[in-house]
Design a protein that fits this description.
Blueprint (H helix, E strand, L loop, with lengths): L1 H17 L25 E2 L11 H12 L12 H11 L6 E4 L2 H9 L6 E5 L4 H8 L4 E5 L10 H6 L6 E5 L11 H8 L4 E5 L22 E6 H4 L8 E5 L1 H8 L9 H5 L1 H7 L3 H20 L4 E3 L6 E6 L12 H11 L1 E2 L1 E2 L11 E5 L3 H15 L4
Parallel strand pairs: 1-11, 3-4, 3-5, 5-6, 6-7
Antiparallel strand pairs: 2-8, 7-8, 9-10, 10-13, 12-13
């Protein structure tokens, strides 16, 4: 018995010394109910960044047909030839300019592990997966931010502030700040960094945002990442892909474990070609709905909004001043909204945000947006 106790103690000690220190504490996770009770819950989810009109019917039919016909029991094509061919036609690039995977974070990891560990500038604030993907592949993160706003600063400003970087991870648009990346800013990094990754998962859901993908044919050090996840509301079946010069894709692919490629990438390839032009209609809706949402949120007592150029708005909540509001904190606001049937994303723990007063609200349909705004006004306003 004593020998067993000593063995347990030794194993516990060995485990303690073998674990690395976490680079950052994880932010609070969004409440995701179990699958079998989802239908019993009527929450309207404002915590995500997906297409406000949901998953296209053509995607639903393609996935359903694949399951019913038994296609999903096949091993997928790990090279994703079908999807890469469709993407090549859509973008007008060579097929070898694309590398397919699942989540955006898995694509960032695939890219970052192909390069020697170095100092990588990350525009802050940013999603926690940026920090994890880079740090877990041996890179050192250098925080870059504008001293006056949430707009990504040019590379020369970063240099003047004595921040040394060899590479950069940027976003177009950024999350949670909802700002687009100016082309001139990106070029300033491309001309000074060994490699630059741009996360464009929500580029089709913005106010006039343009993809930086065409620059990959000129700059071999640029890798753009896009995703079906946000564009087509496929949060539960992610399909993402890297776009880069064929020579760059070839180098990255040498280190890429493509076993994560799923059959869904093949099943949704052709429907994506059909649905891509329809995204112009979504953008037409967002051209008016994003400004409307910002305006309505700014009129709610206690809420300050930050300029948004994508289908989500970063806000802060503070109870103070002459008017005593009925909600004291963002934690209480989030809890009350859940009781009322709404989910918003609290931003506590987000790298680059200093305090717990921030939250993010998605832009959904006008009907859903009006319900949220009405509820916010009611629960925040002090009772008479």
């Amino acid at each position: 018995m004593m020998g067993y106790v000593r063995a347990v103690a030794y194993d516990q000690q060995r485990t303690e010394y073998s674990l690395r220190s976490a680079i950052s504490e994880l932010p609070e996770q969004i409440l995701c109910p179990p699958y079998d009770v989802r239908d019993e819950i009527s929450w309207i989810d404002f915590s995500g960044t997906e297409n406000p009109f949901g998953t296209p019917e053509s995607f639903v039919k393609a996935a359903s047909d694949a399951v019913l016909s038994g296609v999903m029991s096949y091993l997928p094509d790990r090279e994703a030839h079908t999807l890469r061919s469709v993407l090549a036609r859509s973008f007008g690039f060579p097929v070898d300019s694309f590398m397919v995977g699942t989540t955006v974070s898995s694509m960032i990891t695939a890219v970052s592990q192909a390069f020697e560990p170095c100092n990588v500038g990350v525009s802050m604030p940013c999603p926690i997966e940026y920090v994890l993907a880079l740090s877990n592949t041996g890179h050192t993160i250098q925080r870059i931010s504008s001293p006056t706003s949430f707009v990504t600063p040019d590379a020369d400003l970063v240099s003047r502030r004595k921040i040394g970087i060899d590479a950069a991870l940027l976003a177009n648009p950024s999350y949670p700040t909802s700002r687009l990346l100016p082309r001139s800013t990106l070029v300033s990094y491309l001309e000074t960094c060994d490699w630059v990754v741009v996360d464009e998962r929500s580029i089709e859901l913005t106010l006039g945002g343009e993809t930086m993908a065409p620059l990959t044919m000129k700059y071999k050090n640029l890798i753009v990442i896009q995703s079906f996840t946000e564009q087509y509301a496929l949060m539960g079946a992610p399909v993402s892909y890297c776009i880069a010069h064929p020579d760059t894709i070839e180098q990255i692919s040498r280190f890429y474990d493509n076993t994560c490629v799923t059959m869904m990438a093949e099943v949704l390839a052709e429907p994506s070609a059909y649905e891509r032009p329809k995204l112009d209609g979504v953008r037409g809706f967002l051209d008016s709905e994003i400004p409307w949402m910002q305006c309505m949120l700014s009129l709610v007592p206690g809420i300050d909004i930050f300029p948004a150029e994508a289908n989500y708005v970063m806000c802060s909540y503070h109870n103070g001043g002459d008017l005593k509001l009925a909600i004291d904190s963002i934690d209480e606001l989030s809890a009350r909204l859940q009781l009322e049937g709404f989910l918003v994303r609290k931003l506590a723990g987000t790298p680059g945000l200093a305090d717990n007063g921030y939250f993010c609200v998605a832009v959904r349909t006008r009907q859903d947006n009006e319900k949220l705004i009405s509820t916010l006004r009611r629960i925040v306003s002090p009772s008479s």
